[in-house]
Amino acid sequence: MAAAAADASSAEAPPAPASRVVWVNGPIVVGAGPAGLSMAACLRARGVPCVVLDRADCIASLWQRRTYDRLRLHLPRHFCELPGMPFPDHYPEYPTKRQFVDYLNAYAEQAGVQPRFNQAVTSARYDGAAGLWRVRAEDAEDASAAATEYIGRWLVVATGENAERIVPEFEGAEDFAGPVSHVSEYKCGEAYRGKRVLVVGCGNSGMEVCLDLCDHNALPSMVVRDAVSTHDTTHRPLHPSLDYFSLADSIDFFLAKKVHVLPREMFGVATFSVAVFLLRFLPLWLVDAILVLLARLFLGDLDKLGIRRPPGGPLELKNARGRTPVLDIGALARIRSGHIQVVPGIRRFFRGGAELVDGRRVAADAVILATGYHSNVPQWLKGSDFFTEEGYPRVPFPHGWKGESGIYSVGFTRRGLSGVSSDAVKVAQDIAVEWEKQTSTR
Questions:
Q1: Whose CA, among 263, 311, 421, 423, lies 20 to 30 Å from 190?
Q2: What is the total count of domains within the chain?
């Protein structure tokens, strides 16, 4: 509560004046990941200049710095292309992490996008009197350097849904003797060879990390927390960076999540392609029912493995809550063979492992938190109700890309890279119309 109060008081006080002011003759784009690159490329294709700011020292820092080595795109490549540039023909159907990063670098070079790196945006406010956005950025490398204020008519929020790690706290965590890390720090299982590893989280990252640990002869146990009571206060996320989440959403996010698991392919066709095809002819609820039925036929009864499906359908939950279904690439086979143990939620940690909610104890030499990420927009966007407290546009898809006073969002549709591309095209077209009106009157 003290941290929250401090944040509130600092939000009320105006920031110190920046010693450097930069006029931007076009949109100010915050974020240099796929969303920001797409936005800048689409603007440049329409002759609209812009400035792209990013706190990191490279493009797509999430992909380059905070993902594991074996990661591949979970969807076929044609669903993940950015506007104006297909993947190279020699790329596989599911490009690797390295291939996707190379694609993004080539995309930025082809479009002539040159972000301003190490620019950590600390606040963005609309100046109603001037009709301009004032974006304050501090040097991410040099804390003693003077802040810069960027001023422009348009602000594009492109920091994405995965800007900050979610790090829950657990009772007794300080007593645990082994290392505790977030999945963003995990690269490969070699460092865990022969060790007992407790992986907290059963989404795509949790499943794939468990699979990678098996490949390196580690002994993973995966926490599937659907058995945890939402009234169990010992598991509330207490990390200060999560203060702006409502308590109900925090508990819902961390504790009570059953998960949909789908095969990545059916009869050699990507499950996502099947879903897209069916949605052309059938309502979403019926497509969800078909996907669940096919998943049961292909994957069997997952209840026997300790993995339970939630009541809503996979597409319904993805659209409404951003909960991506797990696409199985081999983890289920390792669960069935006993190489991956599925365990319920954690009650508390002790020196050599964790006590589970069912009273059992599981030994562990290390813990990996595959607990995901969240948007950080509420931390720096001030005086605007365009985004919710959870960091998503208040108006739901497909109309959440445009707000009032020249603010836009790209990459918050909960629809992955295809949603990024769709947003970028619409936003660039809308800004280009206004840009042409203004330039024609000069």
A1: 263
A2: 2
